[in-house]
Amino acid sequence: MKATEHMPEIIGLVNRLIQKGLAYPVAGDVYFQVEKYQAYGRLSKRKLEDLQAGARVEVDERKRHPMDFALWKGSKPGEPSWESPWGPGRPGWHIECSAMSMKHLGETFDIHGGGMDLIFPHHENEIAQSCGATGNEFARYWVHNGFVQINQEKMSKSLGNFFTIREIFEKSKWPEAETGEMLRYFLLGTHYRGPLDFSDQSLLEAKNAVNGFYDLFIRLKESEERTMADKGLMEVIERCRVAFREAMNDDFNTSVAIAELQRLKGDVNKLLGQGLSTEARKIAREEFRSLGNNLGLFQLEKWLFNEILGTGTLEAHAATVRGAGTVVTPGADALKFLGAAPSLLNEEIEGKLVERNEARKQKNFKKADEIRQFLASHGIVIEDKSDGTSRWKR
RNA sequence: GGCGCCGUACCCAAGUGGUUAAGGGAGCAGUCUGCAAAACUGCGAUGCAGCGGUUCGACCCCGCUCGGCGCCUCCA
Fold first, then answer.
1. When you count CB atoms within 10 A of the terminal residue's CB, does the N or C end of chain A come out lower?
2. CA-wise closest residue to A337 among A324, A356, A348, A349
3. What's the CA gap between A149 and A194, in Å, rounded?
């Protein structure tokens, strides 16, 4: 959806505000007259008289009040422009949000999100425009998130200390799905209103935490049929459901919601030690999937482990990392994932595993350990199972 | 000058006017294991930036201070 596809709606909205006496045209521009909108400043708790007019930018003398903001800006020669009743020009910053949300969501809608830095002036102005034009409430709830910070500093384009999610994917030595999930886990680990300091360590911690869940999922799939703890499982699941819902209902308290998932993980691991039926293990996995779905977690089935054998995903990805070279932005240190060693082909890993198990059978533990060591140097961890076979993971 | 967010253990991070201040990671010590990994068990803040105040009682309420971050008619 693009703002440029909504020019008729935008122009219509500006017209409506002029007709209501809330806006006035000046030499090809159209300004919203803040003094005519008595609730101005309600969202950001600002009073017109408290604002420092001209503190950063010189006041435009043509405006009736220094705080009046542009709904439409006449274009200078050579600039991209659209035709309007006030001459060629382009929409002011805030108007397209109002026009587009009105068209697609209605005059009043439930939730409007955005960074804290947008509270003023952007969201304040959106409200003024929208409510001014319709007389109705604009957004019922405002959800403002804290900043992502790098080394205690706001991440922003102008500071140059930013990088994109795509770059995180590219720098990571892990498959995209995994990287995405750990990023999501990291983001969800703190309350949305608080600041969030981005670092390679935080991401690594998130990765390990997510891995812990998938370790459990693998166990759920492999354990033998025993039914001792089935009943306990249902109790533990029910407790988690209630607590999880409660946390989310409390202003999206995702850190608590995640803590509940962790608690369930521990509970299920314990019950698994006692013995769960195939059916119960399936229920447990489904429960994680279902709860996790609220947060975009645990949706991957064959992720990470050798079940994805043959897809080539990991190898292709490692090539991307190797070719990427060094990062140029100041965020480089944050993106420098520790020891991004080149990966092995899945087939090679499988081969080494067979070789090692052969050695183990012959009690040639020296050789077995060498192979473990070799794979470890490539970031591959081997886990021996009780039935004599092994699994691996990165 | 105005408005706002944040400061909790080694790290990340919830939370409450008064029961043991969630959870995770790391660490240490065990169980298990050929060795590992995973899993499980145990240990870890007498204290929640500092100082005052309110209160029978504050980490949580109020005030001040210190420290970090952000916004305040341009551009998005």
1. N
2. A324
3. 11
* pLDDT tens sequence across A43-96: 888 888 776 554 555 667 788 888 899 999 998 888 888 999 999 999 998 999
Q: At what angle do helices A365-376 and A346-361 cross, to 10 degrees?
A: 160
Task: Say what the ipTM of the complex is.
Answer: 0.88
Residue A382: beta bridge partners? A392
- From residue A71, how far is each of A13, A132, A171, A354 by CA, in Å? 9, 13, 41, 69
AA letter at A229:
A
A189 touches strand B (CB under 7 A): yes
| Strand B neighbours among A 130-159, CB < 7 A | 146-147, 149, 152-154, 156, 159
Q: Is there a common fold for A3-145 and A153-335?
A: no
| Protein CA at A335 to nucleotide C1' at B62, angstroms | 44
Q: Are strands A139-145 and A109-115 parallel, antiparallel or unpaired?
A: parallel
Give yes or no for a contact between A131 and A138, defined as CB atoms under 8 angstroms apart. Answer: yes
Task: Name residue, tokens 């087939």.
Answer: A347
Bridge partners, residue A142, by sequence: A112
| A189 CA to B13 C1' distance (Å) | 7
Q: What is the tens place of the pLDDT at every residue in A153-165?
A: 777 777 777 777 7
A214 CB-near residues (< 8 Å, 6+ apart): A300, A303, A304, A305
CA distance A393 to A349: 10
**CA-closest candidate to residue A392, choices A215, A139, A209:** A215
Domain boundaries, chain A: 3-145, 153-335, 346-393
As its CATH architecture, domain A3-145 has 3-Layer(aba) Sandwich (3.40)
* Residue A139 zone, left/alpha/beta (φ > 0; ψ -120 to 50; rest): beta
CATH number given to A153-335: 1.10.730
Q: Which residue is nearest to nucleotide B35 (CA to C1')?
A: A369
DSSP state of A363: T
